[in-house]
Design goal:
Length: 390
Amino acid sequence: MTAQSQTLSCPTCSRALPEGSKYCGFDGTDLALAAESGSRKKTCSICGRIYPGYASFCAYDRSSLNDVEQNARAQAASAQSQVTQAPEPKPVPDAQADEEPYSNLLGRTIDGKYLVQSVLGEGGMALVYRAHHVQMERTVVIKVMQGWLLSNRNSIERFERECKLTAKLSHPNIVSVFDVGTINGREPYLVMEYIKGESLADKIHKEESLPYATCGNIIVQICRGLQEAHSMGIIHRDLKPDNILLQHKSDRPDWVKIVDFGISNLVQGTKKLTKTGRMVGTPEYIAPEQLKDRPIDIRTDLYAVGVMMFEMLTGKVPFDGESSESILMKHLMEDAPLISQVKEELAPGNPFEAIIVKLLRKEPDDRYQTATELRLDIEQALSQTLLKKG
C-alpha cells in the first residue's frame, strides 16, 4: 500500500484507508453509511470521540450513544455557548490517544468469576483478553464484542453464531469453548481455552521457512481439525497462519489449535450474514470462488491450506502485491509458481510440490476434495522425505 493511496480515514478508528474503500479493513465500518450520516454523527458525552450515526455504544468507555435527541441538544447547546461565551475545556481521560478500547475492563471481574488481566489482541469484531477463572484457578481467553458494533444486529448475529459454532466443535486441534455470556446484559463475550505458545504466523516470521517435517506435521493436524468441522458442515472461510495457534505442550512445541470461526458458515441452511459484494476472508489466502458469484464449500478451506503450505516452505505467499485488488486478481488469473522456483533449497519435484499445486488449482473440482484425502497424501509425502534422509 503506497502512502499516496491513503487518502481516506475511518471515522471509527481513524486509520488511513486506500482511496475507494467501501469498508474499513480494521473495524468493518461501512464508510458509505458513515458518510451519509453527516450531521447524525454521534459524540460520546464522556470521552468526546465521534462515531457514525448508527453506533450505539462508545468502544472506549461503553457509554450509550443511543439518545440521539439528547446528543443533538448537547451539540446545539455547545454551539450556542461558543457564540455567547468562551467554551470551557472538556475533561478528557489521560493518554486518551494511547488507551486501549475497553481498557476499563482490566482488573474487573466479569460475572463474578473471570478476572480480566491483560489485552491479548484486537480484531474487527472483538477484543481479546487474558483472564483468570477465580473459582477454577485457570487462565482463559475472553473475546468481547466491539462496543460500537452493538448497534448492528447483523454483527451481533455473527458473533453469536461464532459462539454456537465453536461450542459445537470438540476436537484436540480446535480451540475449546468454555462459556458465553454478556457484560451488563448488552456486550456478548465468549470464553475459550488459553493456548500457551505462538501463532503459525509468528513462527514463519521468526524462522522464515520451515522444514518439510515441521510443515507436514502441522498440516496433518490442521487437516484433522478441519475434518471434524467439515463433517459437521462447517467451513472456516478465513484460514491463515494468524488463525493457527501452536501450543507448547510438554511433549511437543507445535500442537495445532485452529481458532476464529467468526466468519465461518454452514455448508447448508445458514443465511448469509455479510452484505452482498463484501469480501469475506484475507486477500493472500482467499480462494478464487470467494471472489465470484459461486457457492463455497470445504474445498475453499483446502485452497487456504495450500497457500499456508506454500508460505511455510518458502517464507512467502504465492500471490503478493501492493494492493488487495492486485492480489485478488492474481488469485483469479495467475497460476501459482512452484515452491522450487521460489526457494532454491527445495528440490524440483519434491513430494510436497505436487500437493501444493493440486491445492491451488483455480477450479475446486481439480483440488483435493476432502481434508482426509489431503492428510493421507501429506503423510505419504512425509514418509518419502524421511526415507530419503535415511
